[in-house]
Specification:
44% of the residues lie in helices and 10% in strands. By secondary structure, it is an alpha/beta fold. The longest helix is centred in the first third of the chain and has 29 residues.
Length: 404
């Protein structure tokens, strides 16, 4: 049995081998010779990958030009819009200052605020039925409190005593007249009170404004320019205050308002040089007046005061110095007299400008400063307005002090 099975297996194997040989031979006969693979395979190069800037296609052989050989179109520059002309800055409007005539009369109401300390006080005391020693002492205290000064006070009291004794019975109107006359004697002076603006020469009148810090010199110089322009004078301003920031700008603004030119220099520059140039320009322009604003100086500083003397000397090389106006703050009282003494030693003071002489000041300072320096009060400032600087009029001043 086993022999039979072995024989069957061998027979199956033989049949399978014969069948494989037959199939293989038939396949070889069906393949044509052209399609048979060659012994050496042909390798085809893959197409090159496009690079940046190349077209995504198979590169072709063609002549190429360099960038230098290519004619580029000429780019026409776009036409710029026509430049608009910048508008010229508008010239500042020139103001017409208020005439100086009658200014003090117009400002009388402001000046009259000081009468409570002087005029009305004196009238009240003199109107008492019996003028004993205590009353006269009160009169003296009233005058001293108003900054009249010791010597002028003693003189006034003595004259009042004599006239009251002679007068006898006193009506209010008689007392007012008496007091007005005596106060006018104290205030009056033989020196001319007008600011000198005509020296009779071919050169302009030169006015220098001096004073300590904070008295309002630059503002006073600007207001004085308005006073002179109102009187028909042509003015050149010299900004010789080179120490205070914006002082030159402030003065120039004042000048532009009335059509006056300002000569200025660099901040911190030599004030004497600027003053010299201002006078030189005033001569060249045939101006009537040159106003020189100087820096505020502590009267206790010798170096600063010496420099003020230098400014004066340099100015006088161009033209005579006609006026030196000392600006005093009327509210400082007796301290202002100390300042006045020192300035008078350095430069020849020819006139006083009292500022802030309104309800906060005491009118007696007019008498004291004139007595101390021997020079007249020429201008008084009665407010912050541009035309609140007025020529000093003794009669209008006294009338404002004692009231109607």
């Amino acid at each position: 049995m086993e022999i039979v099975i072995l024989a069957v297996v061998i027979a199956v194997v033989l049949v399978g081998a014969v069948s494989g040989l037959v199939v293989g031979g038939r396949r070889k006969k069906q393949l044509p010779s052209a399609e048979r693979p060659s012994a050496t395979p042909t390798i085809t190069t893959p197409p090159a990958e496009p690079r940046v800037g190349d077209e995504a296609e198979t590169p072709r052989d063609e002549s190429r030009r360099t960038i230098e050989e290519v004619d580029l179109p000429t780019a026409e520059a776009p036409e710029a819009p026509p430049a608009e002309a910048e508008p010229a800055p508008a010239a500042p409007e020139v103001e017409v200052p208020e005439p100086t005539e009658g200014r003090l009369v117009r400002l009388r109401a402001r000046l009259a605020r000081s009468q409570n300390a002087l005029g009305k006080g004196l009238l009240t005391l003199l109107s008492r039925e019996h003028l004993d020693e205590d009353t006269w002492e009160e009169i003296e205290d009233t005058l001293l409190t108003a900054d009249v000064g010791v010597v002028p006070t003693q003189e006034l009291v003595e004259r009042l005593r004599e006239r009251v004794r002679v007068l006898g019975t006193r009506t209010p109107q008689e007392l007012r007249t008496l007091l007005r006359e005596e106060l006018l004697k104290l205030v009056a002076t033989d020196a001319p009170r007008a600011v000198k603006t005509d020296n009779g020469l071919e050169t302009p009148a030169v006015v220098m404004v001096v004073g300590v810090n904070g008295t309002g010199k630059t503002t006073t110089t600007g207001k004085l320019a308005r006073v002179l322009v109102a009187d028909g004078k042509s003015v050149v301003l010299g900004a010789a205050d080179t120490f205070r920031a914006a002082a030159a700008d402030q003065l120039q603004t004042w000048g532009e308002r009335v059509g006056a030119r300002t000569v200025r220099g660099p901040e911190g520059g030599d004030p004497a040089s600027i003053a010299f140039d201002a006078v030189k320009e005033g001569i060249a322009e045939h101006a009537d007046v040159v106003l020189i604003d100087t820096a505020g100086r502590l009267h206790t500083k010798a170096g600063l005061m010496d420099e003020l003397g230098k400014v004066k000397r340099v100015v006088e090389k161009q033209a005579p110095l006609d006026e030196v106006l000392l600006v005093l703050d009327a509210t400082t009282g007796q301290n202002g007299l100390v300042q006045a003494r020192v300035f008078a030693e350095v430069v020849n003071i020819t006139g006083i400008v009292l500022t802030k002489l309104d309800g906060t000041a005491k009118g007696g300072i007019v008498v004291a400063v004139q007595r101390e320096l021997g020079v007249p009060v020429k201008l008084i400032g009665l407010g912050e307005g541009p035309d609140d600087l007025a020529p000093f009029d003794p009669e209008a001043f006294v009338d404002a002090l004692i009231g109607d």
